[in-house]
Amino acid sequence: MKKIELKIEYTELDGDNELNIEERALLQKAREASDMAYAPYSNFSVGAALLLDNGITVTGNNQENVAFPSGLCAERVAIFAAGANYPNAAIKTIAITCKSKQFLVSEPLSPCGACRQSMSEYEVRHKSNIRIILQGETGKIKIINSVADLLPFMFKAEELKK
User: Distance between CA 159 and CA 155 in Å, rounded?
Assistant: First the structure.
């Protein structure tokens, strides 16, 4: 038996004033996207904004449906829109923010497993790390430099071909 320790590295900031102008603008677009979320059941709105390597920003927000789980998370809405409209553009950065009508979200929340796997598909496809910026409604920000850090044992179909 062999035990292996897994470590990830991320950056934690006290607020968006520590981000560069481009990242601050991307986080603001994610906040604006969360304002347009359709979340009548959970009352929990999530916004995502992607910066592509061609300079275009694509946004998405969660879309709920009474026929649960037919809705879709903000991250996948944005990622799939980018993939459909700009298939050859790599995702450089994704900013994700969330808010609730029932409580203050003061901590950054991480994407769900399905969103992590979807993001990893694009990271692998374009052979380019995706920088992830996470923030709740206010306060602390977490920056992760690769989806592989969020999903270290990501499923890669290319490994099955070997």
Answer: 8
Top CATH class of 19-149 equals: alpha beta
> Would you say residue 145 has pLDDT above 80?
yes
User: Would you place residue 153 in the very low, low, confident or very high pLDDT band (cuts 50, 70, 90)?
Assistant: confident
Long-range contacts, 12-18 (Cβ 8 Å, 24+) = 12/140, 12/141, 12/142, 12/143, 13/140, 13/141, 13/142, 13/143, 14/139, 14/140, 14/141, 15/138, 15/139, 15/140, 15/141, 16/135, 16/141, 18/141
Does the pLDDT value for residue 159 go beyond 70? no
* Partners of 50 in the β-ladder: 58, 94
Q: Per 3-state DSSP, what percentage of the chain is helix, strand, and coil (rounded to 5)? A: 30, 25, 45
Confidence (pTM): 0.93
Query: Which two tokens mark 12?
Result: 């934690």
Distance separating alpha carbons of residues 119 and 108, to the nearest angstrom: 18
Cα dihedral across residues 155, 83, 33, 93: positive or negative: positive
Catalytic residue positions, numbered: 75
CA 21 to CA 79: how far, in whole Å? Answer: 22
- For residue range 39-85, list pLDDT tens digits in order: 999 999 999 999 999 999 999 999 999 987 889 999 999 999 999 99
